[in-house]
Amino acid sequence: MEAVKVGNSRFKRMCVFCGSSTGKRHCYQDAAVELGKELVARKVDLVYGGGSVGLMGLVSEAVHSGGGHVIGIIPRTLMSKEITGETFGEVKPVASMHQRKAEMARHSDAFIALPGPTFPHPSPFAYPPLSGLISLHLRRPLGGYGTLEELLEVITWAQLGIHNKPVGLLNVDGYYNSLLAFIDKAVEDGFIQPYQRYIFVSAPNAKDLVQKLEEYVPVEDAVAAKLSWEMEQMGLNSTLHAEIAR
Predict the structure, then answer these.
(1) Which of 77, 130, 203, 223 is the most exposed, fewest CB within 10 Å of its CB?
(2) Residue at 6 is within a domain
């Protein structure tokens, strides 16, 4: 397939799963900024979890400062924990974590997971307003599992035929090697079908990963294609299902 030229992408918006922690290594922070710049270069807008701290803050500021549009989707309950100081772009408050994930999927044409996983917990510290890409890494890290949960859910949705949008892992310095080995073991032991291993792609840097997503061809599953989903079971309506799947 012909390489995608910079500034010419099949995607209008890309969802980036990332957390309110920056991690302990600068390579993760650099990767978030690099990804933001790559989206700007390809004229792809950002959809993300709406926070202003951690990797969320870094990638959103990189896209916004480069002239890209940013849509942040965040549960109202988490706004006081994940938003500190300046936010970038459009912030859409929602009622729940389920609605957050559904709205992120609805607005996006593809998904990328940065190193994580993180999920905020209440912090005893009140952070003063900070600005700039570098200053964000000084904040106290918050820990948890949110990025991994979001990633596995959109992979599962693809497996079940709910959508056929590309999913990618930004495997910075081998961060996701253990997860990839776990999935390969599940395939080897018969818990995941071999062809389902290719529902998602991975790459060590933003440029290569986005290119793989551009070239991605959905894995066809005859069984999943025949399923008819009652999205009310997931707290969604049929219209939203159609929008997630488009």
Answers:
(1) 223
(2) no
Give the pair of three-digit tokens for residue 121.
Answer: 């917990």
8-state DSSP, 9: -
Is residue 27 left, alpha or beta, with left meaning phi > 0 and alpha meaning psi from -120 to 50? alpha
Dump pLDDT digits (tens) for 20-71: 889 999 999 999 999 999 999 999 999 999 988 899 999 999 999 999 999 9
Query: Any alpha helices (H) in the chain, and if so which ranges?
Result: 26-41, 54-65, 79-82, 97-106, 146-159, 177-188, 206-215, 222-226, 238-245
Distance separating alpha carbons of residues 108 and 102, to the nearest angstrom: 10
**Domain count for the chain:** 1
Residue 84 domain boundaries: 13-121+133-245
CA–CA–CA angle 39, 151, 50 (5° rounding): 55
Query: Domain containing 233 — which CATH number?
Result: 3.40.50.450
- Cβ-count burial of 225 within 10 angstroms (0-12 exposed, 13-18 middle, 19+ buried)? exposed
pTM of the model: 0.80
Domain-located, residue 2: no
∠ CA 156-162-165 to the nearest 5 degrees? 80
